[in-house]
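Running co-folding for fe (ii) ion.
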Amino acid sequence: MGTKPHYDSWINAKPFEKKKHINTGNKLPSDFHGVLYRSGPALFERNGQKKSYFVDGDGMVHSFAFNGNNICYTNRFVRTKKFIEESRKKEFIYDTWTFRAGQDEFDEIEPPKYESQAYIAPVFHHKKLFVFDESFSPYELEPNSLETIGRSTLGLLDPQAAFSAHSKIHTFQNQWLHFGLKHGKQAEVYFTILDNEGRLLNSFSQILPRAVYVHDFFTTENYVVMCLHPAFIRIQSVLAGTRSFINSIKWLPEEGNLIVIYHKSGKEAPKYYDAQARWWLHSINAWEEHDKIVMDFVGHSSPDHLMGTSPMYKNALTGTAHGPYAPGEIWRYEIDINNGNLHEMRLFEGNYEFPTVHPDRVGLKNKFSYMVKGNTQNPFWNTVVQVDMETGIQQEHCFGEGVYCSEPILAPGMQGVNFGPNESVGLLMSLIHDGINKCNYLAIFKSGEINQGPLTLVHIENEIPLTFHGCWRRTINKEL
Ligand SMILES: [Fe+2]
């Protein structure tokens, strides 16, 4: 006893499905309405077989529905094809990122069986709730009960359409933008742009100049941008089943990053720009400024938290994750789309992850970004921070050692689209695991006053495992 790290109760949480009503007294504005959704991996063991990386888990979605100070918390596993069949057989049937069902190693020449885990990113759009995995079309859930409706094609007729975990909603253009990677003889990227009713505006695919693993992309008013870091995939190994997906990725920093800009029409030739090698998982935001495209992201010198000899993503499940890991620094590319120049600059040193911006600023210049921050010696993050991207001033709240923060999501102020200083009007929410007291709570801050600590902590008496991403659904009172 006492030897397990504090994060063990978070990463190895065994959640049960629950619906719970909570009242926060008078800590929140009485006219505050909406729903916070979050998703992450939540099931790693069946019939004595335990997975080793937390990216191998099955998806669970959580919701916090606010009606003033009355909150309804709900959590449910996504009833994917994989989850249903494996629950029925009481054992793992499908392979995942690092896991081969029924055997310990990727050592047999047998095609792997992959199915969606539906765990990475929830998105609420055109009154529907979806949860995305890395390379499958999403699952649709009923937005209030979280019951699984089924696999969705998003209404697209093109069987070639592809989706990755991250999409972008441009509220200023009424667009929902997706990218998806397809790895075959050649690597391709497939873009899909929907309107605010979920109707297709445009889709197109392009051959990629290199076959790499990429988790996110950048979008602006007129462009979609891929940042192809040198994480090369040997797709033949994945398809043959001789290597896990992660062991098929090779980091070749000497190849540098390759940034590819596509016009949203799909009718202009792509433009290519070289940069130093920098592993990245998450964009912060991108926008156009005169003839420039500005792209902010969290960049690392290496992907040592995901792969290599002692990756955090693996060791966390066994309680053996120890730093230091390559820190997640805040980087900026400025690309002159006319003369082909790319300037890269490190905006902030430190160790950041899970960046978000005001939902109405996606694709437009943002003043503030929200993210988590931590010490590179320890896995995970214990601080919520609001970064003023113009002045560099950071407001933060540290929860202390043994407490873990999740991606902060801004519930915007009720004034609609906010500009300038009002961009920060709203409530900022981070789901917290206290590994010392073994409890979970949603910390709610007033944006712009992060230094003053949370307005309230909404305690959830349930095991809540790590969640990756979330979104905010704006509602009016009578919707909930
Ligand atoms: Fe992500």
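Result summary
The chain has four helices and 34 strands.
The first strand starts at residue 18 and ends at 23.
Job closed.
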